[in-house]
Design a protein that fits this description.
This protein is α+β, with helices and mostly antiparallel strands and about 150 residues long. The protein is about 40% helix and about 15% strand. The chain has a single domain, classed as 2-Layer Sandwich (Alpha-Beta Plaits).
Length: about 150
């Protein structure tokens, strides 16, 4: 798109189905690299990827050539297929429906990158559910507790 100039930074969060702890430390970094390759192959820029055994955070520079929902669908579908093909999990791997997405200014990026890179330490103190609800409240996002997560 000629004469289109943007600076869109999005922090996305999504969980393993039922928030099961299926992302093993043994292959977690490979998963993050795979996520980065999908994002970059779609023409966007992955700035940070991190998480724990049950969820992933992604900070990216989004180009206006593709919707965020389409990109996240490709990331989730591609990584699920990859994990299952490699048999990294003894169970069928699936991501939960939906995701959270939050925008940040360029000046906030170092703090967001630090936050994403320190997920293990961060979650020693609180659960993913607590973290996610806090983010929704911080951004004043209306949500229905009933639909917040797919439950078993």
């Amino acid at each position: 798109m000629s004469n289109t100039y943007t600076q869109i930074h999005i922090h996305t969060v999504f969980a393993v189905k039922n928030r099961d702890s299926l992302i093993s430390i043994e292959w977690r970094d490979r998963l993050y690299q795979y996520i980065i390759s999908i994002i970059n192959d779609q023409g966007h820029k992955a700035l940070a990827v991190g998480g724990t055994a049950n969820h992933v955070h992604i900070l990216l520079g989004l180009r206006p050539t593709q919707s965020l929902s389409s990109l996240i669908q490709k990331v989730k579908q591609g990584t699920s297929e990859w994990i299952n093909k490699k048999r990294f999990s003894q169970f069928q791997f699936q991501w939960q429906n939906g995701y959270g997405a939050f925008s940040y200014s360029k000046s906030q990026l170092p703090n967001v990158v630090n936050y994403i890179n320190n997920q293990e330490k961060h979650h020693a103190k609180r659960s993913f559910r607590e973290e996610y609800v806090d983010i929704l409240k911080k951004f004043e996002v209306d949500y229905n507790e009933w639909y917040l997560f797919d439950e078993v």
